[in-house]
Design brief:
single chain, 230 residues, mainly alpha, Cytochrome Bc1 Complex, Chain D, domain 2, 3 domains, two-stranded antiparallel sheet, 10 helices, rod-shaped, binds heme C
Length: 230
């Protein structure tokens, strides 16, 4: 372009952002007059970090309170979603009925020592092994007789639920502790619909001491002479 035409330029050269271009050059015209365009800019990293920090603490809050706000159950009620931090927390939330714990222990002993003869359903085997379910020996109000039966064994004619047996059961006092015998008797007295009270290790100990080193099994007459309860 000639110097003469200079005044026809829409903008002065000072307005041109394109440096190094000669005044009034084609490039300068385009640079000045092009339509403005929207640029896409990346999200500032600080916002991403802030969002992550926020999510982190929100998550901690939910973990800590189960979403309960001011003691009102939120979306994640504490009773359901609260985490347990210690073994004591878990145990506190799952109280174990002490009798149930003893029955569980008794079930273990039963399944090792008694199930083979008296059967898993407590019905025994007709003519050979008497039933424990519904047995008057098992359900007696006091447990003295059944304690002696389990400690020493029992042999000879024995009537159980109207049926006669004449067989022999081995003693268990050498195999199990007072606590284990108390547990298995507690179990037998409360399983298969049986409803008789629990037995304590002390009650078993009393008969273990009284019967001492006795080697013979119990018989029906001796059992009848043993008061059911103290
Ligand atoms: C080897 C088989 C055998 C095993 C094992 C056995 N018993 Fe017996 N049990 C018998 C027999 C047989 C009699 C009946 C004895 C008789 O005829 O005088 C009996 C009788 C009894 C009686 C009294 C009668 C009744 O049915 O109520 C009780 C209670 C009893 N057992 C409990 C137990 C318990 C508890 C265990 C496990 C610790 C056990 N028995 C393990 C065979 C067994």
């Amino acid at each position: 372009m000639s110097k003469k035409n200079k005044k026809n330029q829409p903008y002065s050269s000072a307005a041109s952002p394109v440096r190094g271009e000669s005044r009034g050059s084609r490039a300068a015209v385009f640079a000045d007059t092009a339509e403005p365009t929207a640029e896409s800019r990346p999200i500032p990293i600080v916002f991403i970090i802030l969002t992550l920090v926020l999510l982190y603490f929100a998550d901690l809050y939910i973990l800590d309170r189960g979403g309960d706000v001011m003691n009102k159950a939120g979306a994640f009620p504490a009773e359901v979603y609260d985490p347990y931090y210690t073994i004591a927390d878990v145990q506190g939330a799952n109280p174990v009925d002490p009798i149930q714990a003893v029955r569980n222990e008794g079930a273990k002993v039963f399944n090792t020592a008694c199930v083979a003869c008296h059967q898993g359903n407590g019905q025994g085997l007709a003519g050979q092994f008497p039933p424990l379910a519904g047995s008057e020996w098992v359900l007696a109000e006091g447990p003295n007789r059944i304690i002696r039966i389990v400690l020493n064994g029992v042999a000879g004619p024995l009537n159980v639920k109207g049926a006669d047996f004449n067989n022999a059961m081995p003693p268990w006092k050498e195999s199990f502790t007072d606590a284990q015998i108390a547990a298995v008797i507690t179990y037998v007295r409360s399983e298969w619909g049986n409803k008789a009270g629990p037995v304590t290790p002390d009650q078993v100990k009393k008969w273990r001491d009284k019967d001492g080193t006795r080697g013979e099994p119990m018989n029906a007459g001796e059992l009848q002479n043993t008061p059911e309860k103290d």
